[in-house]
Predict the structure.
Amino acid sequence: MDVDTFSGRVRELTAEHRIPGAQLSLYRDGTLWEFCAGVERTGSGRPVTPRSRFAYGSVSKLFTAALVMQLVEDGEAELDTPVTELLAGFPGHAAVGAGHPMARVTLRQLLSHTAGLVSDHEGAPLRTPSLRRYFESVVRDGHFGVPGRAFSYSNTGYAVAAYVIEVLTGQSWWDSLESYVMLPAGLDLAFVEDPRPGRRPGATVSGHAVDLSTGRTEPVGFYCESTLAAAGGIAGSATDLVRFGRAFLGEGHEALDSDLAEPEALAPMGRAVPAAEPFGLAAGWGAGWGLYPGADGLWLGHDGTLDGGSCNVRVDPASGTVLAFTTNATTGLAAWLDLVGELDDLLGLRIGHYEQPLPAGRPYHGTAALAGEFVNGELAIRVSHEAHDGGTLRLDADNGVSGVLTVGSDLVFSVTAADQGDVLFSGRFLSSADGRPADLMQYNGRTLRRAGVASRQAA
């Protein structure tokens, strides 16, 4: 590998996308390569090093899933046992009636986003973080669909998994992650928020909001609700992600040097769950890992963002390759997509990647019928019909993604997010039982229901 050429290209990509700082770590052919660019915070002069901690965002879910696999390996739980059985006798269990959807939810469903839970659930304001009270709040009004029926990406599910972890280990999710994962595996991770008495959040780089129209780059602080820490509240380096990923390499390849779990215990994280069809997000999903098509099979992977930061990790168990890329800017995803397109030429490496589906057939003509508000828990997306502009559709999501919507006759749509470096996102509208379009929308792995439509439509 031409190290100087590749390192130079990583630096060029960060500059092109106005990213203050980034890391790329690659484990291949038994060798670890580390590349760094830029600074931890714009104007600080502190250079990014291989030890700098970046917010992992949703990639944090992998560590929570691995902790669950350890508990399964130790005989403390089973993936397909209803979680209410694991919680029997503990606070929160009594809130689940026999006919309640939560009575059928399993750990495998929670980890594979097939539990029928809403994407994000804030719960009632609490003076102190309590996963028990959060769980009770989810039981009251956190279900969206039928457990085990379909995929809908859910941070809420991982918060529920964290409560199960607390019950089974007898200690907080934070303590459990340290004692079960971080310390045995020798990972230098930190928590974006740490509510434990006397603890403070770990030192991390700053996130940055990039305005491509003006070129301004403003620092922003990372934040994650304590109740959702298991879904998105971990920070660390790209190298720590690579070291974690090595535990999932196939036979004949060097695995993680420290103790995490036996390969067969971790295997369910990357084994496709039949009900998990993550349209617009990945080719499939296991009890933790997403599945991404590569040149010779599926790669394990996960992507994450949090408050001006991005994180991407890919693992090929067959070839023994692990790659992780972290940035501290809102344009990090656009840089990742450019990097994916160039790795073959730069390194002869075709990593697992999911191509966003594009609208097929002729443009959909009944655009006015598609307009409306679609919701899933705290997530809301507005589709507006601009009749004065030739019937143009526009999408505006609560998470900041917005742009013109292009819809094909197959009801698949695409939208280009200008504020994230012109990244293309895809989704689709789904027809109802009586043939009317757009009672449901799938977008970036989430399923949303048109406001006012009865929940039975999701079943």
